[in-house]
Amino acid sequence: MKQSILVTITFGVICFLACESAELAHVTELGIQNFDRLVVESDHVWVVEFYSPRCGTCQEMAPIWERVSKGLQKEFLFGSVNIDLEEGMKLAEKLDIFNEGIPNIQVYGKDDPKTVFSGYEVPSPKKLTTDILAAVKGLSKGRDGKYIT
Questions:
Q1: Longest C-alpha distance within the chain, in Å?
Q2: Which residues form the Thioredoxin domain (predicted)?
Q3: FRET label pair with 5: which of 20, 99, 109, 145, CA 20 to 30 Å apart?
Q4: Residue 61 in domain
């Protein structure tokens, strides 16, 4: 009986982790090593989330980020920066993210990055989507359907 329960729990945890990572497969993990190459030098517009898994507001924001990034994945490239990792911390420091706080979502296009969310009041998915789209007003889409700079 104990072995059966252990197998069931283990299977549940494996399924949860597999589903969790598969759901956000469209979001690229970013850090100091790959940010310039992938985001800054890109012809596409990126929407980037800076977060900490230990931050309560970031945890609240997670399902909204997931929903919005999935809904807009055909129009934007998405990235996440985990500031608890050394790579993410260095990048957040370089970009002065901590002046605004986390969670923080920025849109990177041809101009300076635009902060579309920062703080403690978690927006609705509709509000976040509207703010992201407002940040790219006037930009066109490439042949792949994604916004370009």
A1: 62
A2: 16-141
A3: 20
A4: yes
Q: pLDDT for 10-30, tens place per residue?
A: 344 333 333 343 457 899 999
pLDDT tens digit sequence for 99-145: 999 999 999 998 899 999 999 999 999 999 999 999 999 999 999 99
Token pair in block for residue 138? 């006037």
Question: Residue 132 is which amino acid?
Answer: I
Q: In Å, what is the CA distance from 85 to each residue of 7, 33, 50, 99, 123?
A: 31, 12, 11, 18, 25
Supply the CATH number for residue 129's domain: 3.40.30.10
Looking at the 3D structure of the chain, how many domains does it have? 1
In a domain, 117, yes or no: yes
Contacts of 108 (CB under 8 A, 6+ apart): 39, 40, 42, 45, 46, 47, 48
